UniProtKB/TrEMBL annotation:
This is Uncharacterized protein. It comes from Paramoeba aestuarina. The keyword Transport does not apply. The keyword rRNA processing does not apply. SMART domains: ANK (SM00248). ANK repeats lie at residues 110-138, 177-199. It comes from the Eukaryota. Gene3D superfamilies: Ankyrin repeat-containing domain.
Amino acid sequence: VNCPDGVGMSPLSYAKGYPEVVRCLIGGGAIVDAGVLLDVISAGNEPSALMVLSKIRANLDEEKEREILGLACEKGLKQLITAILPSTKDTSRKKQLLATKAGSTVTSYPLLRSILAGQTEVVTLLLEKGASIHVQSAEGGETPLLCVAKLQSREEQMKIAKLLISHGAKGGLCDAKGKSALHVAAHNGNSDLVRLLLSERETCGVSLDQKGTNLA
């Protein structure tokens, strides 16, 4: 059951998108590890992902948990996200997973990654779980509202923007290149988001300062 074929693929590798087949193979002795879990998450197979997680959770280190959580956020697998995050009693552990290490890229941050993927329900879930609305990536300085401004889907963009602002997101914060969400929205010709940011400037901190300083 664990024997690879000529291109190195095992039966479990081929079955990653089929929950019942994955269940049968695991029941038949298929070996599971973090790589298998990432494969089934990539396929959007949440039932199998939950099954694999339950078998390997004790062997996962923090770095691998972060990787798994980030991909689950991108794919919108809410049950898996809830299973990965520690209980509400373990707040320090949860904060470690929802944050990330210094120097990491924007996709290393669960909240920012879910925003870039347009996963509105996941964004809501992460905020409920304690994700910081003021997170800013270490490498590029991206903020939640900056990530929203880059979304292609205008419908999801407005939903997430309103959600973030209601939780206190700061629209005036700038990235490493000095751009705020307002800059990006204007560059993309997004009048709805520009209008929202300006209408909520008292709440989200957008400034009309000509010098472009003290935007937050």
